[in-house]
User: Fold these one by one.
Assistant:
Number 1:
Amino acid sequence: MTNNYAVPDALAPDLIITNGKVITVDKEFSFAEAVAVKDGKIAAVGSSDEIEALRGAPTKTLHLDGKTLIPGINDSHIYITLGINSMPPGFFDVSPAVVSSIDDMREIIKKAVAGAKPGQWINGGGWNQGVIKELVEDLSRSLCKEDFDDISPDNPIFLTEFSYHTGIVNSAALKAAGIDRDTPDPEDGTIVRDADGEPTGLLMEKATTLITNIQPQPSYEELREIFELNITELTKYGVTSVTSANDRPYDISFYSNLYRDYAAEGKPFPVRISSLMLWAESYIGGDYDSIEEAFNWVGTTTGFGDDFLRIAGVKVFADGIPPQKTAWSSIPYEDGTHGSLILAGKDDEEKVAHLNKIVDFCHAHGCQVGFHTCGDLAVKETVKAMARVKEADPKDLRHYVIHGDWVMSESMELMAKYDIPITTQSELLYYIGDDTTKRLGSEIAGNQWPLKEMIDKGVRVYNGSDWPAAPADWRRGLQTSITRKTIGGIVCGTHQALNMEEALRAYTKDPAWLDYMEDRKGSIEAGMYADFAVLGEDLIEIDPDDIESIPVHMSIVGGKVVYDDGVLQIK
Ligand SMILES: [Zn+2]
């Protein structure tokens, strides 16, 4: 066959993206103007003229018109099914975006009750005690069932705190779950009670599972509908890869069915998923017995799957979170407590032994493990355990720390030495930095999420949103990692601020290592997957305070457009 092009059709790129600013995030952090894409991968990167010369008859064009192309965002810590279920139609937002008082919450719930069937559960969440007026004015006051009983006497209500570690329910929900004054606290959870021993409606840590375990689960068809409606919460930001960090068998079965059906229907899968499995009876958990039992039945370990849907490993919650004073921290909370590990054990020593047993088991079975650890003591023991197994048996298992609100220098040194990464959350600093400052002072808030110190010490530092604990908006996370500014406008510890290159690497190239995919995703270089985000502004030139408002025009995964705001066209 002949045509006017120098390049034979079979060799021609499927797509060329030209006339833009391409931030490649390669080793040199170099810039280019254009990219050629073939078979889902990047075939070439260069000037617009160089790439134009590769055009063949079948080649389509995305003319960037001076806009910016970056590697697709890799959000290294989210919860997919929790995220998609944490949005309308089945979920009512009571986050700081819409709520600043209990009255605001009541208004939202009143409307929800009016639209609900008799007895139907009303789920919602996102509340943050740090910005609810009545709770800020009186630090001893908490949300309680009476805040909602009069407006919803019959419909059970379950409203999770933004972190999902705490929930508030009304009396109808307590009744539906059979929780009363005689119900014992579950291990590592608290049914908060009043002076008379009556449950107040506040459920902490694993006590929330008394509710989540009895709530009905949507069917595959219902969940697929919710997924397709709400996965845009990732794609609209240009997120192309995620680690989903709390996947129960139900979730993994959902992804598997969905992936198979999309392949059969010829639909592009919208995001690359690495799944950290939660082998626990409760939603916040993970313990040795259930992990061992699961391995006895299912041998699936790290790396199973393909580059769109793969098993990463196992997720374990080691401790709680600082706003609830449940993270195990050497820094005392305002009431003098230090939190603790939430793993089973009668004291710290037993809990630490439990943690070590899990790390030993996962390492021996070829399974990456990611530990939720917020407090510095939890981080310290987790890192010590990981370093110990890697020293004894140095195989390439990339165990890692999740969150690390506070990290001691000695832990950072071990993390650097033993290649133990951390996925951390700058975006959460934006939301809770004010609360931390108020409760614990500016020095402690200034060292919360010490990204700069860790990077300088040689730790592999990745960023992620913790969606739905915060929006999957890397722009705000990236901005906060550079400015350290909170929602209230406080600057928390400029000495922990990153520069743009460090900040962008932590959201793109660097976390590919966590997925053993550093040779094929995360940067714009020949041979890498064609995963991109198209931005309306130049990330390099923009004032850091304006990063959060940069338009995202397109999200492209494996060369296929999965989100498009209509501003640019492929022709
Ligand atoms: Zn998390």
Number 2:
Amino acid sequence: MTDLVPVSTAVPVSAVDPLSAADPLSTLVPLSAAALVTEQATTLSAPRRRHGLLARILFITMDVAYGKQGTLSKFKVLELVARVPYQAWEQVAYVALTHKHQMPDFARRVFEFVREARAQQDNEQWHLLIMQELVHQRGIREGFFRFRILPQLLAFTYYHISWMLYVLRPSLSYGLNADFEDHAEHEYMNYVATHPELAEQKWETAFAEDYGPHETLADVFRQIGVDERHHKEQSIAHMAKPRFQ
Ligand SMILES: [Fe+2]
Ligand SMILES: [Fe+2]
């Protein structure tokens, strides 16, 4: 894991050029509490993307299974599924490296792509662990089928759709992920807006050093929302590029 950038040097995400956001470390920049409030307002005033059919099917499935409202348990499922496209792309890239390793320039580009996918997976991993920690701290009971079996089925299906779309046409896979990340960004920022008590709740965590020094739960959720926007912007930037660039 890389070192985190101090809050004082953090760059507001809205100031980041989506194309330069290809820097895999950019998703790990924690913002100050004041900057996070500004970024939340930016998300809430922005329209959602026009989500494609596959994304809409996924969101409806999740609403039916876990309810329309955001909850900690539902966010945990969201994060389990969110890592999957990055895993799928990384896997496709390694297969490409196996076949094309004799071409150094191409191989380097593929490896840079792998690094970015891996950094995003790591970022999603912290989101998942943070949600799991909150669910555990609050003693929330979760049913075995809805929270163990079904998330794995969703992740399995989404993984295979992601790599197949990527092999077929990368922009389709990136577009699906951009929809997913856009949805996640808005869900997290809305959750903070509809739960003002989060601003009073201190973040008691084992992941402060890994994820960033945030004081309240409102800050953590806003930061996760900003991360999701980064992921969306990275996917949108990739949509216009050929495979592995
Ligand atoms: Fe996430
Ligand atoms: Fe994400």
Number 3:
Amino acid sequence: MMRTVIAAIFATSLWLVTAPALAGDETVVVYKSPTCGCCVKWVDHMRDNGFEVDVHDVDDLAAIKAEHHVPGDLQSCHTAIVGDYVIEGHVPAADILALLESKAETTGLAVPGMPIGSPGMEYGNRQDPYAVISFDKDGKRTVVNQY
Ligand SMILES: [Cu+2]
């Protein structure tokens, strides 16, 4: 009985320690244009979800996207680097956490364009359907989530 209680307390405290550390481990490095407002809102969304965010205003985003192998048709407003992954556009923090946890072999995740209702693109209650797509350098793509 006592052992069960101790084990339960231990498991609870372990969860408390590991859960925030998951997000806190990786700094999100964001590249955006100096005038992008929805990019700032996405940065807020990431911080609200426990991520450390480092923002860089750049004039030549195309060069950043090319350097990180973001396919033309998957591009959005901002590009971010988290650990070894590239995050393109308004990708929800939950999907980034899932990717970091899975350690999947992929270049990164993208939400192409700027769908209304994605994190940082809120517009009243409007929610346009969108997909989170994982992509790699060889052109392989997988839809990992849909909203
Ligand atoms: Cu945007």
Number 4:
Amino acid sequence: MHLVIVFLLSALLPLSHSHGLDSRAWDRFLGLRPLGSQQADTKRGECPELCDCPSSFSVAMYCDGRGLTAMPSVPSHVKYLYLQNNAITAVPDSALINANSLLWLMMHHNQLTSEAIGKKAFLKLDKLERLYLQHNNLTSIPSNLPRSLRDLRVNHNKIEKVTPADLEGMDNLTVLYLHDNAVTDMSTSLKSLKSLTLLDISSNKLTKVPDALPENLYQLYLESNSIDSLPQDFLGRFTQLQYIRMSHNQLTDKGIPANTFNVTGLVELDLSFNKLERIPVVSTTLRHLYLQANVIKEFTLGSFCSIVDVTNFSKLQTLRLDGNEISREDIPTESSLCLRQASSIEV
Ligand SMILES: *[C@@H]1O[C@H](CO)[C@@H](O)[C@H](O)[C@H]1NC(C)=O
Ligand SMILES: *[C@@H]1O[C@H](CO)[C@@H](O)[C@H](O)[C@H]1NC(C)=O
Ligand SMILES: *[C@@H]1O[C@H](CO)[C@@H](O)[C@H](O)[C@H]1NC(C)=O
Ligand SMILES: *[C@@H]1O[C@H](CO)[C@@H](O)[C@H](O)[C@H]1NC(C)=O
């Protein structure tokens, strides 16, 4: 078996020599160099052995999917660092000490725990814009994250709590992925995120909508939590909000104040898989409404149109009502005037 492999490889060797592969690369290819030795002889400015630093794009360093268990040393000129899909368990305070040019740090799909991230590990990265930590074993958001972040992904971890100090002063943060964690309490942590446009906290353990949601949100994803009611004037403060997903919660009619969803600007509202018995009143400007798998017993045309005439009618295009307690016969014929743009109504 070994003989065959060596034979095949030696047949390839002349070709690869002409492409300038050195013996170190061959060792790496053959798996002869032990893992864990990657930090041993790296000098400042050099590329760590297990990583690739393409000369055509020297600001990037690719160390993804190499079986790393520890941080490689990072030269100070690197802006884009790819460390995803490894088994890195810790980021000590000293790991990124020279890496003050970093713009992107990709560390998703590793084995990081919160205890193993130094309190100052990310503190000096004052240009960092993207930090990807999804699919690790974090139980909290790392402390002292750079305030320069624009895109922070910590989804698919084991985070239980988000505190105001975790996100304070992140004026430029526009995307925050927190989904698939175990968050029960957000307190007022989102308050200062004035640039935030996309917030995904789906698949957590929230029992209420987080307080102090940022006003400039464009997409709000809260599905698969245990939310049973909404605060008064929940949507009144938003100026840009177009997409709300709240499927798979515990919402009841009683928990939704009147006219909550009768706000212009909304494009899509997903309230499927809840416990609603009535169709909530929605704005005539809404385009897509998902209400499947509730316990709706009645088709109330007034939920879509309070008056119907040439100019007053619903802009709804999609309406899903399947998996409720009504059938097509329950939809009055006058509906076609109000719902004149609905190309698909499922019951
Ligand atoms: C991370 O979590 C996974 C799954 O729960 C577990 O198998 C693994 O041992 C954990 N790793 C560490 C470093 O805690
Ligand atoms: C936010 O972005 C602006 C403009 O790009 C920049 O001047 C500012 O320093 C950034 N804020 C932080 C906290 O990094
Ligand atoms: C929804 O809001 C509009 C505009 O504010 C208002 O005219 C309409 O009566 C409201 N619909 C219902 C059913 O209250
Ligand atoms: C209905 O249309 C008229 C114009 O025909 C308009 O003045 C009025 O504000 C509309 N009412 C609603 C509730 O949109």
